[in-house]
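Supplementary Text 2. Reproducibility record for the structural model of the 221-residue chain.

All settings were left at their defaults, and a single model was retained for analysis rather than an ensemble. We include the record here because the model underlies the residue-level annotations in Supplementary Table 4.
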Amino acid sequence: MKAHILVVDDDPRITDLVRRILAYEGYSVAIASSGNDALTRTLEHPPDLIVLDIMLPGLDGLEVARRLRAAGDNVPILMLTARDAVTDRVEGLETGADDYLVKPFAPEELLARVKALLRRNQEEVLRYVDVELDTGTRIAHRGAREIELSPTEYELLLLFMKRPRQVLTRDIILDRVWGIDFEGSSNVLEVYVSYLRTKLEAGGEPRLIHTVRGVGYVFKE
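Retained model, structure tokens:
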């Protein structure tokens, strides 16, 4: 599953440059030109990483980062800005950014930092309620019980674990787990949700994957 990256900057020259650099490496790229637009796009199509400028119209990048972290969203954030004072870098990191890159930048440095953040995010242990998912070993546990997952079940649980309490539409899930060009059975999502529910609830545990009728699913207590 290729990573989806949201680039947030109000300078079209920067967004075009970053889009081309990332797209050439095979990443899926979306663009937002304001802080409010960034928050909306993050909800509509959750990214794997955000490249976020500080100086934005409306909500600035620092406030966007604060709101995402306050909402429990741990998506990696790479701050991209022309401000290079130490106090600016510290403030950016304290709001929840994971790394900081000053303009102008070399394409190679941008890619190196993006790859490092994505790699770091892929090798972690995610926890929600009593479910634990080790993204390095791809092993899941519910309490002390180990759960064996197929590759597709793993990708589906990974998406839910990264976005707890967020309603995910069928289109978002199909795009992120099966790919935007998926042409398989129309009920494949329902089938795999059923598989995953069975494994998560095999010990009589409460349901965590809930259907939002006419919309999609939400992973919550």
